[in-house]
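Continued from yesterday's entry.
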Amino acid sequence: MWDQLRAWIKLLLSFRKKNWDLCDYPLRVRCQASADDGAFAASSECAWSAQIINWWAVDGLGPTREAALNDLRQQFDSIRSDGHELPRPGTEVPIELASAELVRKYEAIAREFLPEILGINYEDCIITDESTLFEFDFGDEAADHIQKVMVVYGVDISDIQGRQLGLIFQRISQSLGRD
């Protein structure tokens, strides 16, 4: 209720100017509870979360409140500098999924890769061309997954920028002559 009240106030105030900064948006900053026992994860790298209310695709994380706000500010500034039109403060911003053209094109590879390399089923997740191997890595598993791809498929993916799954599937398909 309070979040929506803050959003409504920021929406009304947004009509006073045309170019908005992060301070013009309604924010929610909170310490995240640990999933294990409900205790606050104060030592965690992602203990704090900062979000723009009603703008679900952008959030900042950090070990402190200030770090989470700084992460959010960097993401906001990046969106603005990339030339994207900013939504009016307080309005609901729909979630847009990235393209999944490569994932669909190489679906057969994706169906093999996900359970073999990551231990998950294709039907149990949503992946797009922008999804990365890092989204499925926990800790030091990235190097393990890169090595596993080399062993299973004989393909080196260590040079793929951002470890995007669509590009990984494309590389594997080309290497196996399925393209």
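--- second protein ---
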Amino acid sequence: MISASSTRILREPFRIFFVIGFLAGLAGVLIWHLYHTKMISQFSGVMHARFQIQGFLGSFAVGFLLTAIPRLLGVRPCT
């Protein structure tokens, strides 16, 4: 027996990109905090940029496009 929330997740599995984007954004900001509190000795601007651009922005862009395009075009959602 599948619950209503499981049915929605199975119907639109790409929504996980929003959760991944949030976690990547949090990780990108956490690098600043770890450096500021001296928990890491060097700040990695490259790592921060990768989390923010590839993780945060990339995940939200993919999640948004996979949500919006089928609705704008009036076609079946992506699976």
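The radius of gyration is 17 Å. Residues 38-79 form one domain. Will compare against the first tomorrow.
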